[in-house]
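batch_manifest entry 22 of 60
target: Major facilitator superfamily (MFS) profile domain-containing protein
source organism: Eutreptiella gymnastica
requested by: lab member K.T.
priority: normal
notes from requester: please return tokens only, no post-processing; we will run our own comparison against the previous entry in this batch. if the run fails, retry once and flag.
--- input ---
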Amino acid sequence: QCLFFFGLSALHVPKRMQMGRDQSPDRSAGLAKDELSPASDNEAVSEETQRQVVLSIAAYSVLICFVDGLSITCAPFLAASIGIPTSLYAVSIATMPLVRLLATWPTTFTANLHGRTPVLRAATATSMAVVPLMGFSMSLLYFAALKGLMGLGDAAAQVCIPFMLSDVSVPGNRSRTFAVFRVSRCAGQGIGPVTGGFLAAKFGPRAVFFGTAPVLGLAALLAWLLPETLPEQARAKADCCEQVRELADGACAVGSDRGMQFALLVQFIETVVSKAMAFVIVPHVCLQRLHMGPSQLGILYTAGSVTKMLCAMPSSFLSDKLGRKTAVTAGLILQASMIAAMPLWRSGWQMILAFIPYSAAGTLNNAGFDPYFADLNNDDTKARDQALALQRNALDVGEIVGGPVLGALASSHASSWLFKIPPILLLFSGLSFACLARETTTVEN
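--- output ---
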């Protein structure tokens, strides 16, 4: 019921804006066309299709992120049972974003050529085949290889879902439309870690990976039922070589914008810190220094996900009403403060409580960043897709760099700098974004 309400609230603004155009043409005459209406390619998408897309993606995301939550909790303990140290574990999980990085542009090309839903279905089928096999991990090489294959399926899902949501939204409500996805994602990630922690403590981490097969099968069924959001006339029509050339030229044109470059740099720095903290440093501190077990680690991740779920809609309203810059700056400053205070926590429960405001800061970052890149190229479907793909590249490169670098720092004698350098980077990035980035929300909602 909550997801249905969020979907209706996110889709209410375009309908109201359309009524305003029909009833008061003079009032909208002074505003730019791209501020009041979706891109011309999106006008073929009906309101019923919009609602179906948003709610179907919400249900799909709950299942997929539930599996992700199981994996986040169980993977460190599975790696420890194999004998993989923290530094090598950080390198092994970096294969997932590395494959995502390599697959992003082929996925973008395919989604523009054949539509969004075929790519999403293939991604779900890949995950359904690979994730249960993690239970058979017996070596570092096998573990890293399966992480890479998981990245292949994850790349298609991470690319296609933002494409579909941007297809059916406008700048005035885009952050709230994306928030439906974030709420459902956090709901799945909130249930997954605590479930995985208790199941791993009772049956072992391998059994948890084996049990993901039916959940992924249900997600594959939902992916098959999703409607297509890219109209036929908006799809690529040229031959393959011409399409690749056009995609490369468009990506260069989009990436040459100074505002885009600066936003990508800030997104990269935020990802380097936040991904390494969530997947490498926090588990390292919890296991090595605080001696937390699977159940407590699962509770920590669940507390973070529930916080993100509760903060998703308020932070999205803040992003839509006060601007993307406000959300990003507030999130980065709060995140820097919580990382700087992390060495003060002396027990597992203190770490769990401190992880709550840290997760709220990440929600603010997402509420500002996710729609920002689509807003910069709202009136062109292909340019918007390329901007979102460039954001995906920045996220993947940041995850590739952050995990191994901070993981090696955690294992070295310079580990005291682990909670000094990242907060300085985040604080500097937040203040720079507040002063130098251009705002993309101009419509009174």
